Write the structure tokens for this entry.
Amino acid sequence: MSGISIHSTGIMVDIREMGGMAVMAAVETEEETEAAVGISYDVTPYNVGMENSKRVTVYLEPAVHKALRLKAAASDRAVSDVVNDAVRLSLGEYLADIEVFSTRKKERGLSFESFVTGLKRRGQI
């Protein structure tokens, strides 16, 4: 079992491999992290300004976890920042879809059967 601990304004986050999946679990103290991981880390605060953040456990595929860690390291950012940005982007795309759907709500619908019948009537099938 391997692990990485990131200190973020008093919260330790333990990231480790368990059963082929990456597991992120928040623990309150360095002692809990050392007990969970089995290794002592000398880590300095990295993510200042995250006092109002919520903790969550996320299960990632190993390749996704590795890509996430590499992206965070390459951009000199915390994993949490990269995840927050990705979730915000995804929610923004969802909001854009909702706006398009609401503008097209008044359009007349066309069933699959009507569409195929129209293709046949026009000699396209």
Notes: The chain has one domain: 3-112. The longest strand covers residues 11-18. Residues 79-104 form the longest helix (26 residues).
